[in-house]
Amino acid sequence: MHGVEVFLLVAGAVAVTAVCRRRGWPAPLVLVAAAIVVSFVPAIPRFELEPEVLLDFVLPPLLYSAALSSSYRDFRTSLSSITRLGVGLVLVSALAVALVFWWMEPTVPFLAALVLGAVVAPPDAVAAAAVGKRLGLPRRVMTLLSGESLINDATSLTLYKVALAGVATGAWALADGLTTFALAVGAGVAVGLGIAVVVHLVRLRLDDPVVASAIGLLTPFAAYWSAEALAGSGVLAVVAAGLYLGHTSPRAGYATRLYEEPIWSTVDLLLEAFTFALIGMQLPWVVRDVIASDQGLGHGIAVSLVVLLAAILVRPAYILVTARFDHLRLRGSHRPPGDSLTLRESAVVSWAGMRGVVTLAAAASIPLTSAGEPFPERATIQLAAYTVAIGTLLLQGLTLPWVIRRLGVGSADDTTRDAQQEAAVRVATADAVQEVLERQRDDWSRELGRERADELIDRLSTVWRARATAAAVMLDPGSADELVPAMPDVPEEATGLPGVMRQVTHSGVPSAEEGLRTQRLRRQIVAAQREVLMERRDTGELDEAVMRRMLRELDLEDESLSSSWVTRVQRR
Question: Where does the signal peptide begin and end (predicted)?
Fold first, then answer.
């Protein structure tokens, strides 16, 4: 694929995505459908891309971005359910598909059929997440879908490598497979965490958000390639690094967070648009390869449709059979009672099995030859893989919104709980502000006298607590009976922070000295509020999503302080 072709494909995909975002359509599904239509235009060339490009350059940043935005605490809480789908379901799906394909193609070695099973086993949560966010799926469902997609790629790619090695040697030992899997998990997680710790320490010492963001862009590639070089899972290395750095990001500078968020959103849009467009563009050429094979197109289509049916049905069957294990509480998960999926939520998860970039890349990377012989039924295996990818995206992706609405699965409880948590935290931040103000009492007493300092501090504290209480009541009206009676009366002469600081500096008009002191105090207050958010998040009293929304408010306030006229005066 030439550079101009890549540019045109990406530009067209971005244009389609822009229309979808404007109209509220699921972009991955529209991209695949539009690309299939365009691919049949006679003048359109074949879009061929080395599979290593997808695995080495597209997959790492997509996984890293998803892990960064995921909640480590939610991931740990749902670890038993995530492992059940991300490992158990992948292995069962791969085995079921392999048996179906082997039954229809008895001349094909079982290990070659297992290659197909490993290729089509891992679902991709991108399309499901897009639909879920638009329709408001409960957070525990979104956590399960995103967590599954973070680890199922590692399971499938490890199984894929083991099956390919078995095809080449003609034999495969279970012990060797388990050893390979254990090494992939151990080395992958260790490398990812090691790189993440180093990046975090560097990030804490950097005051340049541009350089810190550049290091962040390089991190997923460093984790992936390092782990793969050590026979570990590059996927798990990227996921481990992303979860760690996402969890510790509040400790980094506010500017780095404000810089990185739009950067990763843009990277996600470009790579996802390119990937789904490429999936649609590949179909006609895979069909032509099957026509040129010994089996012929009719047989290839029949096999592919049966494999598609098996891939779709095994997911709900597995989830139904293993539903009892959803109640398990792994040690250290801190999973609250009653957090298991309901029957309706399980049905939604069962239908959210759309495939994506890993299936595309793994199918394309199936070698032409193995041990000096043509790879058994390579064209038919690739057609089946693309059929599963495109078929699940269009069939399940287009009907998933109807399933969600029909079952009445929504996030009303999450919205209410989020409002209650935020209300409680806003009241708690008033206590933190009070502590910051108390630390100013001695300095202000020396300048103004004890009585005047006490008056100003009490005035500021009263204003701040009244605002926090008012915000809490508006967020959670149910707390009004408890909060309003305790809400302090704000004196008529009460002023905000700038007015109080003007009195501290004995200045009748605004001055640079007053501005600098006000800015320092405001930064101390923001830092104290940020500590409250992280403490509540770590103790489980504040959900990660709520914490990040409130953290962004504080980051923007920090940014406004850095962009103010006071900062410009200070730099002169």
Answer: none
- Nearest partner of 255 among 570, 557, 529, judged by Cα: 557
Give the distance, in angstroms, between the CA of residue 103 and the centroid of all CA atoms in the same chain. Answer: 38
Work out the angle at residue 209's Cα, subtended by the Cα atoms of residues 497 and 133, and round it to the nearest 5 degrees: 85
Tens digit of pLDDT for each residue in 114-160?
Answer: 999 999 999 988 878 888 888 889 998 999 999 999 999 999 999 99
Tokens of 430: 């008033």
pLDDT for the residue numbered 119:
96
- Count of residues in the chain: 572
Q: Which residue has the higher pLDDT, 505 or 94?
A: 94
Q: What is the DSSP letter of 439?
A: T
* In the chain, domain spans: 3-324+340-409, 415-571
273's CB contacts (< 8 A; 6+ apart) are: 10, 13, 14, 16, 17, 27, 31
Nearest to 203 by CA among 243, 248, 236, 240: 248
Alpha carbon 435 to its chain's center: 36
> Letter for the amino acid at 548?
R
Give the residue from 472, 473, 441, 446 showing the smallest Cα distance to 456.
441
Q: So what's the pLDDT on residue 517?
A: 77
Tokens of 327: 């109640």
Residue spans of alpha helices (H) in 54-124: 59-68, 72-77, 79-83, 90-104, 110-120
Q: Which two tokens stand for residue 416?
A: 């209410």
pLDDT at 63 over 80: yes
Give the separation between CA 111 and CA 373, rounded to whole angstroms. Answer: 15
Name the residue type at position 546. V
- What CA–CA distance (Å, rounded) separates 185 from 182? 5
143: left (phi over 0), alpha (psi -120 to 50) or beta: alpha
Kindly indicate the confidence band of residue 332, based on its pLDDT and cuts at 50, 70 and 90.
low
Given this structure, which CATH class describes domain 3-324+340-409? mainly alpha
Beta carbons of 416 and 410 less than 8 angstroms apart = no
Rounded to 5 degrees, what are φ and ψ at 106? -65, -20
